[in-house]
Amino acid sequence: MADDPADRSPSHRTDVCVVGAGPAGTIVAARLAEAGHDVVVLDAGPRFDLDDRTEQLDAHLRPGVDGGVSEAPRGDGEAAADLWGMGGERDAYTSSGPEGYPLNAARVKGVGGSTLHWQGMVMRLHERDFELDSRHGVGVDWPIDYADLRPYYAAAERELGVAGADDNPFAPPREEPFPLPAFPPSHSDSIFAEACERLGLPTHSVPNARNSEPHDGASACVGYGTCKPVCPSGAKYTAERHVARAEAAGARVIDRAPVQRLEHDGSGERIEAAVYATPEGTEHRQAARAVVLACGGVENVRLLLLSASDAHPDGLANSSGLVGRYFMDHCFAGVGGRIDRPTRQNHVGFNTTECHALYDAADPLPGVKLEFLNYAGPSPVVEALHADDWGDTLLDDLRDSYGTHLAVGGLVEQFPRAENRITLDRSTTDDHGNPVPDVQWSVGPETRAAIERVNEVQRAILGELDADIDWVVGPDETGPAFHHMGTTRMGTDPAESVVAPDCRAHDCDNLWIAGSSVFPTGGGMNPTLTIAALSCRLADRLDGWL
Amino acid sequence: MDLSRRDALAALAASGAAGVAGAAFLDGEDGVAATADPTPPDDVSTLVAVAETVYPSATEGITDFVETYVAGLPDERREEMVSAATDLDATARDWFDAPLTGLDRSTRDRLLRDLGVDAADPDPDGYLSERVRFHLVNELLYAFYASPTGGRLVGIENPVGYPGGTESYRHARMEDGDG
Q1: Do A187 and B109 touch (CB under 8 A)?
Q2: Strand, coil or helix: what is A534?
Q3: pTM for the predicted model, two decimal places
Q4: A230 reaches B (C-beta below 8 A)
Q5: What is the pLDDT of residues B83-139, one digit of tens each?
Q6: Which residues in chain B touch residue A384, judged by CB atoms under 8 angstroms apart?
Q7: ipTM of the complex
Q8: List of domains in chain A
């Protein structure tokens, strides 16, 4: 954790208060600060020191090493549950739905947000994702379409420094090259490409928010192989880049400042201030002309519900009753096995080839994409440190277990379901006495069927390679990909949505919501590029409004 | 398989330690460290004795490798290694009336197993078996298998944790060289 800056007092004459220092909030903050506005960003978690990343790598690889964050940013003394200090009373939650949801593995609180531990895959949604109801009679349409977002996708790719190639026959139309060249395909990609070609499944590159060459003050990837959960080289994009940009343009970013509630004026139509706590136990009010809520699909909801008032008895911006409803994630499906030739896995921690051939098809209807892993099977060094042997026996074991693994993963769309939701669990409180979030999540029949279909395709691919299949993640084993979407959905009708198409809350003149909580549907693509595109768009709209 | 001082420097890069203490050792001729290990020779010998036990039997050059690796570690990490080695050595003297360096490889192996090191959870502050697992066995295995030379024995010249670039993942087989 970085040295603790002392001044957490609020700023005067602030134009915009951004709650949350992940990519959604900091892109808005950087662009508005560069446009000349006075911006304050508040984040519940700490500022992590870039110099600690190699220690975090050490902690990730070597069992018994405490998290690289030397002191968890909490008062309960409990050891950090992971490298980024998640867990404990600050991050308490419940999960009362049909499927358990491991919320604290799915997010990071801190300056940089969940990009600190993310994988860094950044695809555009397809046209169909904006028109799911019109085309297929499921879910809802977005109030904007791909053409509306297209220029902002290009801006988002520049913001994140995306390395990619225009070789994906299934991708939506684009007008300019990616900012950085794509990472070339791996050896195992070439093995998969043969099999996929025989099955009529064209493969293509993966857009990565990761430097394939030096860019934006950071080095090219040097192949540590630990992208998730930590990139020691800084080649993987994190929102810390936008924090630096925002601060260079005059914004203040205050860490360890969890917002407790938003307070509105007498009319209930304008937010006056964000009330936040400090580690010293002081409470401050950050007044601002506009507030941008950008703390993720779970905490956005909690903060709106915690801000209930006489004017908004069911929670702020919740006249529709939909705040927290339609929580969506992507579900993982995968098949792995071994073949009789070297597959060269675990050199790098990111993927270089995917197949989107099934994405727009009707079988299955939920959007699905296939990912060809570059990290299938065990890493010898990690296995050695967990082994119960050493010497020649260990070497023989490692030689036997490494070298011939392959795996095909995939993401599967969840349609919005009202019963999947985030609420407050009033029986449990966090370190400030606030009710914690309760996650109610289930997979749903369409998604289960789609996972089965994806498994069939994945088995067929490995079958083409005469692989011995040794694991399958199907509908009974699936889990979430940690993409929190849908809980403050965007729409034109205030009775059917929480924010308007410009991402401003229907119920409050100066409350804007950034991030994937505004997605009406989630598609099957990793959401961060769309988050970034919407933040670029939101910043434009808010700049005009200011 | 021959280990070298250069391999030890690569292992330090993998451990992240080169960015701390090890950087000072990268200035020697051809980037190879001069011997500047503050660790007393007897302690290094004990560490080498453990390494000889947990590394594959065909490994050569262990003494130079361990000396250079230990010298490049941050002070606290090196001192913890030495402390665990001292305790392990005391156990050897108790059980076998001889220092660890005076035992043959199979007896050292038996000592570690009889202590339960093979099944112990690595814990830097735990019982002796847990500390030996963490500070000695796992530290030395990490140095070995997170380096290109150790990785090559298994078939990977750019093991996880080692910043070996973005070329090797594209190749169908290991190329000659030091990774």
Answers
A1: no
A2: helix
A3: 0.94
A4: no
A5: 999 999 999 999 999 999 999 999 999 999 999 999 999 999 999 999 999 999 999
A6: 141-142, 144-145
A7: 0.93
A8: 1-160+238-329+416-442+485-546 (3.50.50.60), 170-235+331-412+444-478 (3.30.410)
